[in-house]
Amino acid sequence: MQEGKRQKQVGGLIQEEMNSIFQHLGLNMLNGGLVSISTVKITPDLLEARIYLSIFQTEAKVALKKIEDHKWEIKKELASRVKQQLRRIPELKFFLDETLDHVFKMEEIFKEIKKGEEGAKDQKETSED
Prior knowledge:
By secondary structure, the chain is an alpha+beta fold. The chain contains four helices and four strands; from the N terminus they run αβββααβα.
């Protein structure tokens, strides 16, 4: 289902504020790795925010657990920043954004296919000689 205009506005606002909050609380650098907010999806009733995180150079499950442990503090900080724009602060749910993993897997598959095609082409040329 297509996101509405208000959902996109609230999602953008929350993403912008969450980036700032993560920097303020030191959650953008965990265990020597980088954590970034890739997207924020808001439910149509604006009561739930699904925050997708990209995690680099660190164990994803450990980083997600640490962020979940700070969830109350994050929500409190978010509420103080957006209380003038929103009537109710949405429930925050954090998810791993695995789109980069899928991109890397697809690139590997394409490389394997290309190697296979080149190998088949070389075999065909040597058999013709």
